[in-house]
Amino acid sequence: MYQCGSSRTEWRSSERHICARSLVPILAALWLVASTPAVAAPLPFAMTEAAPGIFVRQGLDQDATAENDDAIANIGFIIGPEAVAVIDPGGSRGDGERLRATIQAMTDRPIRYVVMTHGHPDHIFGGSAFLPDHPVYVGHQRLAGVLVERGKYYRRRLVETLGTDRAGDYVMPTLLVGDHAQIDLGGRVLELQAHAAAHTDNDLTILDRQTGTLWAGDLLFVDRVPAIDGSLTGWLKVLESLKALPATRAVPGHGPPVVSWPEAAADEQRYFTTLATEIRALIAKGGDIETAVTTIGLGERGKWQLFDDYNGRNVTVAFKELEWE
Amino acid sequence: MRRIALLALLAALAATGPARAEEDEAARQARWRDLRHAVFGDRTLEDGAGTITLEAPARALDAALVPITIDLTGPARVKTVYLVIDANPSPLAGTFHFGPAADTHELRTRVRVDAYTLMHAVAETEDGRLFVAETFVKAAGGCSAPSTSDQKLALERLGQMKLKRVGAGAVRKGTDAVQLLISHPNFNGMQMDQLTRNYTPARFIQDIKVTRGDALVFDLESDISLSEDPAITFGVLGKTPTPITVEVHDSTNAVFKQSFDLPGNGT
Fold first, then answer.
1. Least CB–CB distance from A144: residue in B62, B162, B197
2. In this predicted model, what pLDDT tens digit does every residue of A266-310 receive, in sequence order?
3. pLDDT: is A33 or A129 the higher one?
4. Which residues in chain B touch residue A317, judged by CB atoms under 8 angstroms apart?
5. Does domain B2-260 have CATH number 3.40.50.10490?
6. Among A51, B35, B156, B221, which residue is least crowded by beta carbons within 10 Å?
7. What's phi and psi for B43, nearest 5 deg?
C-alpha cells in the first residue's frame, strides 16, 4: 500500500505523488539520527502530495486491528515557509511516530501545530508522539470536553486492540476554535472552521486558500461508508457550506488522499439524503427503530466499504434525530 | 424509602463488580443471583418459557439506545414486569405496573447499557408467580456516552411528548398499539457538559403514568437506565375516542402532563 511503485500507478492528472523523493536519503538520515541501535527508528511513510506542500498518508479501509496499528485514517501535514502543521497526528503511537519521522526526513522546519479535525481515536492517538516538538495542539472548542469525557474509554478500547505500549495517547488541545481561526506557517495562512454537529459535534476543517485545498477530515468519507456520530441533518448542512468554499480539491478523512471538490461530496450527500427520506417515510407510517435498522439504506450496500459495519448504527443515530422533527 | 434503599443496594452490588468486559459466565450468574435476591428475596423465579421472552440485539449498534422487546405470551394476566440490566450502575431499569386498560402482551422500550451484560425481564402474574427471561447484550459505554449532541436543544424540548399509533406486532383486536416518546435528556450524572467540562447534574425520569379515561394503562417506575428521550411501545385497551393521558415525574420534581386523542384506525 505504501510502496512508491504501487502509488505511482494511482497517479491522476489532478494530483501529484511524493514518491519522486527517494526514500534512500530519508532512511540514511534516520539511521544517522538513531542514537540507540537497539531501538528501531520509525520508518517514514510514502506520502501523496495532494497540493504543493500538502502531504497525505492514506489510511486503510479497515477498522483498527493489531496488524494495521490503527493506521486507518488519512493523516498528514502542511509545510509552510517557516513551520509545519500536522493535520491529524495518527491513530496510534506508531502511526504518530512514523508521521513525525516522515516530516523530519523531509524538512528541518519546526512542527508548530498539531491540528485535530475531531476527537475520534483513529485521527488523534498519535498525538503524544509530537510532544517533543512542543507544538500548539488545536481543536474545536468542544474537543477538550469530548476528550475528558470519552478519552479514557477510547484509550481502553485501543489498548485492548494494540496493547499498552502501542496504543499511544491523545493530547488535550491547547488552542480551541469556537468558530473561525487562522494559523500562520510563515506567510502561508491556514483557515480553521469549527462546525455544528455533523460527523461529530467537534468537527474542524482546514482551508488552504493558497492552493484551494480543503482538508475536510471525516466530514468527507470517500469509498468507506460515513459514520454518523453527530447529526444527519447537520452533516447535510455542513456539506453545503463546505461546497461553497473556494476549494478545488479536498483531503477526505477516509478514502483517496485527494479528490476533486466539490464533486466528491456527491456520494455522501446521496447516502445521507437516502437515509433521511427512507427514515422519514418509515416514521410517518408508524415504523419503529428496530425495523429501521434492518431495512433502511440497503440500496446503498455495495456502494461503500464496511457498509454492514456502520449502516445500522447510522440509521439508529438518524432515526432518533428525525423522530423529533 | 424502601425503594431508595433497594436502589442503593443494587448500586453497591454493581459497583463491587470486577472488570466487567472480561466477566465470565460464572461471574455473570453470580451477579444475577445477588441481584435477584436483592429484588425478589427468596421468592421462586420460574423459567419464563411460554410466558415471557426478552429480545435485544446481540450486539448493540448504539449502547446509549438499545431497543428491547418484552413479549408476554402466557395464559395468566401479568400485573408487573421488572427489567434488570445486570451490569448497569443502577441495574433495576424499570418496573411496569399494569392497570385494567393495559393490553399486557407486549412492551418495547430503549435502554442504556454500560457493559457486556446479562439482561433479565421478570413477569409477575396476577396469582403472584414470577417468570424470568434472560438475554445477553454486547454493548459498552452507554451510561457515560454523551447524552445528546446538543444539550441546549434537549432542554428546550424538555417534557415534550408524542403519542402515535404504531404498526403491526402488538396489534390485537380491540387493542391500540401505541408508541409514547418523551423528550427528556435523562441525565444520569455521568455525562459532561463539553464546554464547561462540568458533570451535568443527574436529572432523570422516575415515573411515567399512562391512563385511558379513568383507567390505568401502566405506571412505570424508571431510573437512569432508560435512554435519552425515552420511548415506550405498549398496547392499550378501550374505545378509540377515549383520550390517553401521560404524566411524567422527574428527579427534580418536575411534572409533565399531556393528553392525546388517538387518530382512529377503524377498530
1. B197
2. 999 999 999 999 999 999 988 999 999 999 999 999 999 999 999
3. A129
4. 62
5. no
6. B156
7. -65, 150
